[in-house]
Amino acid sequence: MIKLALRVLLALSLLVTWQAYAMDGAVENLRETGKAFASVAREVSPSVVFIQVEKASGTEGEGSVPFDDDLFKRFFGDRFPALPRSEQPGEEQRVIGQGSGFVFAAHSGLLTDRTYVLTNNHVVEDADSIRVKFQDGREFDATVKGRDPKSDVAVIEIETGGMPALRLADSSRLEVGEWVVAIGNPFGLSNTLTVGVVSATGRTGIGINDYEDFIQTDAAINPGNSGGPLVNLDGEVVGMNTAIFSRSGGYMGVGFAIPINLASAIANQLIDAGAVTRGYLGITIQQLTPDLAESFNVEQGKGILVAQVSGGSPAEQAGLRQGDVILAYNDQPVSDVGSFRNQISMTPPGTRGQVSVLRNGRQETLTVTIGKLAGEAKVAQGPTQSADVLGLTVQTLTPQLAEQLGATPGEGVAVTAVQHGSLAARAGIEPGTLILRVNSKDVHDAAGFTSAVSDSSAEKRVLLLVRKDEMQRYIALRW
């Protein structure tokens, strides 16, 4: 009995000792983590700048941070303080905006007579004057070297050299769950550091920029952080903070950063040429929904659908056709419209590539030569037919109606009415939309359309090819 008691006491003693050791180890791990974040701050902060811009807002505008635009309101809301502006009657009002940026070394290296700063286009767009302030208190006037609104990337320059540039990571190797640190000037509070993890990568279709491939993070990002760096624990830039999704105007745990691979590629073009040259294929593409994947006999999650091929485009010359499903580009699987679009846009014009497509159940490989992307109705009444199961009404194209819609008589039918809450309405079909094809049949008049829909009643699903504002896409409806 005594021996048993001694064993119990020994076990309890060891348990207490182990718990104390474990607690000390946990605290020590936290200390080391904190030191890592502090080390990142010391290394990165000297290269992060506060950017103040001034612009004319007109006589009736309201000041905001950075400016009173729809994009900013959508992602930051209206609840933030306005900065000083002119209040004298008859004077042109001036809006003061703010943001962040960081010193960027172009591929040609650092210069002795000037310094390039990478930031967001929306921070400096339409600015009449730009002032840059470093952590050590030095301030400089800056000018815009180049802007790219489609990606929301801009480069500004200051006439001084020797400023420390941040090291850039390979953002393609970034993984979900990695620690990241955001540094910037939220609400004008300079050199603020926030910490979080990578929540997701490759976010597209958010609607912030024309070209999107965002890193999503829960590191706190607020108004004024735009243009600042998102860095890893080695102090290397993995992204440029761009926006948050917020219903209150402040941080809600969802922030977005442009991957530095994309941002730096665009920045180097802006520095070299003052503009961005993008690759062009000449197709309209759309994501394969479950219904579309079933209609085209494609496994869900694989491939994207070619909805339209422009005449004379590189895609047409390569043999791509409407209804093809793109499975791979240069042997890399394709499953996301945004990622594929970005890949093509950043491919230098003249580059040859291999596109694998699924066509009528057979896989083919086509060789494409990337081109250069160029710079960037009331419906007349007539005889109609209703498709009640879809919730829309169509009419045959008269010469006048065809001219209004940019079509020719017999080229599809025009949608004249859509019932609220119907299948058609939920799919985004609107009055003025042209329906060109039902399943595999071209449609030439309203009666033919109704007949084709009726032929699909047994399967209770239909595949439509539609066109609106010169853009074609497929829509699969099921009832």
Q: What labels would you give this structure?
A:
479 residues, Pdz3 Domain, single chain, alpha+beta, 10 helices, Thrombin, subunit H, 7-stranded antiparallel beta sheet, 6-stranded antiparallel barrel, 27 strands
Tally of helical runs = 10
**Count of distinct strands:** 27
Q: Which ranges are low-confidence, i.e. pLDDT below 50, for 5 or more consecutive residues?
A: 58-87, 376-382
> How many separate domains?
3
Q: What is the alpha-carbon Rg in Å?
A: 28 Å
- Strand content of the residues, in percent? 25-35%
CATH topology of the largest domain: Thrombin, subunit H
| Main structural class | alpha+beta
Largest sheet, in brief, is:
7 strands, antiparallel
N- and C-termini, Cα separation: 77 Å
CATH architecture of the largest domain: Beta Barrel
CATH class of the largest domain: Mainly Beta
Question: Overall pLDDT, averaged?
Answer: 80
Task: State the helicity in percent bands.
Answer: 10-25%
Can you tell me the overall shape?
Answer: globular
Tell me about this structure.
The chain is an alpha+beta fold. The chain contains ten helices and 27 strands. The chain has helices spanning 2-44, 70-76, 121-124, 260-273, 290-295, 314-318, 337-345, 399-404, 423-426, 446-455, and strands at 48-58, 93-104, 115-120, 129-133, 139-148, 153-158, 179-184, 192-203, 214-217, 229-231, 237-244, 255-259, 279-280, 283-287, 304-309, 325-329, 332-333, 352-359, 362-369, 371-372, 384-387, 392-396, 413-418, 434-438, 441-442, 461-468, 471-478. The strands form five sheets. Strands 21, 22, 23, 24, 25, 26 and 27 form a seven-stranded antiparallel sheet that branches. Strands 1-2-3-6-5-4 form a six-stranded antiparallel beta barrel. A six-stranded antiparallel beta barrel has the order 7-8-9-12-11-10. Strand 24 (434-438) and strand 25 (441-442) form a beta hairpin. Residues 58-87 and 376-382 have low confidence and may be disordered.
